[in-house]
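Purpose: get a first structural picture of the assembly so the mutagenesis plan has something to point at.
Setup: two entries, given in the order below. No constraints added.
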Amino acid sequence: MLIDFFFKLKTHKLPVSIKEFLTLLEALQKGVIGSSVDDFYYLSRTTLVKDEANFDKFDRAFAEFWEGVEAIPGIEAEIPLEWLLKQAELTLTDEEKKLIESLGGWEKLMETLKKRLEEQKERHQGGNKWIGTGGTSPFGAYGFNPEGIRIGQKTSRNRSAVKVWDQREYQNLDDSVELGTRNIKVALRRLRKFARQGAPEEFDLENTINSTAKKAYLDIHMRPERRNTVKVLLLLDIGGSMDDHVKLCQEMFSAAKTEFKHLEHFYFHNCLYDFVWKDNRRRHSERTRTWDLLHKYGHDYKVIFVGDATMSPYEILQPGGSIEYFNEEAGAVWVKRMTDVYQKCVWLNPEPEEIWGYRQSVQVMKELMGGRMFPTTIGGLEKAMKVLAK
Amino acid sequence: MRFSGSEEYVSTEDLTLAVNAAITLERPLLIKGEPGTGKTMLAVQVAKALGLPLLEWHIKSTTKAQQGLYEYDAVSRLRDSQLGDPRVQDIHNYIVKGMLWQAFSRDTPCVLLIDEVDKADIEFPNDLLRELDRMEFYVYETRELVKARQRPIVFITSNNEKELPDAFLRRCFFHYIRFPEKETMEKIVDVHYPKLKKNLLREALEVFFEIREVPGLKKKPSTSELLDWLKLLLSEDIPPEALRSKDRKTIIPPLHGALLKNEQDVHLFERLVFMTRAKNN
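Result (structure tokens, whole complex):
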């Protein structure tokens, strides 16, 4: 039976290993816990899950395994955190149950819910069809429809009555949450590459001893300090649709600035064209030609684009597509030039990954980048840094 | 050997279970959690409750894994050889035992705390894999194998500044100390200040949890800060009425400096209080 449990965790994409599973069995054999399911929950969590970001996933898998309830496919991907389906729960009286029949019964209701989830892409409040809060749609919270399925509504229920894993208290630690400066720094640290360069200022004990022993007199050796030598070129999309993501970009920028010694940043608008600029207030007077960029910064620089890549596809693919001036060469040509010169190159996109598929320009840009486009979540940033650090 | 909390430390059900699992299976227990939730205190209290000696190894950014095993003091051997000291013949005289070696060489079990493992270099945990798994290591200078006579109970704390490698995590039990809820918090305060007046505690806790909910704080006050604040309230003999008002959001709680450690947070908090006050008038 426990082997099934192990595979259940695997299907929920939890990184569990056989060694940890054997440890759990060993603990059970040695009688660490009694026979209560709560104890088993705590024990299996402490042996199998090694990151609090995965606690939520584990809770879901555990509930599913022990209740025998099948998860509704796709639901975890579709609903953002704050209005997450805590549990699809029915609070019905007999009369209300009759009303449900009018909609075609529970199963029909769930079916419709699934369909709505697929259609709906944005947070919603009020109204009478979409899922959200305060409306009369059967789906959502704080609403008036008696056939309603309650989604993520906070109810003041007696804590002890709810099973521990059903409370899902760790949901905000899932690693798809937005970034804070500290988290960004931790992710950026993956890029560290230490080397000894510059003036010898540090006392080198080992070499001193070696050469003192060889020469039979005290021979002091010095060596340069270890420094982070990674060079980063940061290109930020600014203005227009990026206004929604200003806070995130600021955080990312300030984190990167303290982390790297060799960091150069430039701005562009929507797509990369003939020139970029360093100061947004003087963007029309002080421009840097993109050619100069390519010549000045060696190919050992790692390039990070930050932008939502949301525009008309013409702005990327056609000469003269820029909305600001007439560009003689298409944006795609310039992006191609960058990726040719800089082997280590990624695009970070602050828009949620689920909606990329619906925007043609994002698809085009992703293709131009050779698939190296990542969302700006902790998970996405880490993946991006892995690609850059290879 | 079983741990079930102590008089000075309130241990939740899941934490107790994790500690006992680690003790029974003789594997390290990795503890994460917000700063000030009592990660380091846990090891101290477990040692005290079980009556075992505690060895502490505090990690800094410059700490190397080797330093926990042993260090070869080449410089003093070099100096001794120049001075013709007879001790120089025996290399054992220049090998300084680290915390792990000290823990391994004990005849009775002990508690070993490896504090703030995330402060060290990224490679640090990888260098300790065999040492923590098999509890043995090899001393190259003297060509001997050091093996634990009694496997120590190992606690490792982390503030999550660096990700730990999978191979390391697989060898540990893991527990995340969540921020305590009101009931647990009352128990914790009761353990520290048993004579605290009930109404002062209630008022203080409400103020405390309200401050924690202020959006945009850089550093939320934690358990240890609450305890400090209560200590101040007690020593200044502040009556519970001072914490109470018709609308609690319109007063700045006395001695709030003990709770908010950051200039910007204090500013933000004062501004919020000022704004609600202006709205109410």
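Chain B has a mean pLDDT of 84.
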